[in-house]
Amino acid sequence: LIPTTILLHLYYAPYTKVEESFNIQAIHDILAHGVPTTDVNEFLAARYDHVSFPGSVPRTFVGALLLSGLSRPWVQWLASSMQLQILVRAALGLINSFALLSFQGTVSDVWGKTAGIWFVLLQASQFHVMYYASRTLPNIFAFALSKRNAMSTKHLRLSLYLLTVAGVIFRSELAILISTLAVYQFLQHPPAHWPRYIASIAPAGLFGLVIGLAVTVPIDTFFWRAYPSPMWPEFSGFVYNTIEGHASEWGTSPWHYYFANALPRLLLNPLVPLLLLPAAFVTDRPSRALIIPSLGFVAIYSALPHKEWRFIMYIIPALTAAASAGATRIWSLRSKSLLHGLVNLALVASIVASFAASTALLAISSTNYPGGAALTRLQTLAAAAHPPGAVVAVHLDNLACQSGVTHFVEEAVPIPAAASLLNKGKSHAARKVGVAWSYDKTDDAEILLEPAFWQRFDYALMERPEKAIGKWAVLDTIYGFDGIKLLRPGEEDEDVVGKEEDGSMVARVKKAWRTVEEVGRKVTGGWWVGIRMEPKIRILKRLQ
Question: Average pLDDT, stretch 168-195?
Answer without folding.
Answer: 87
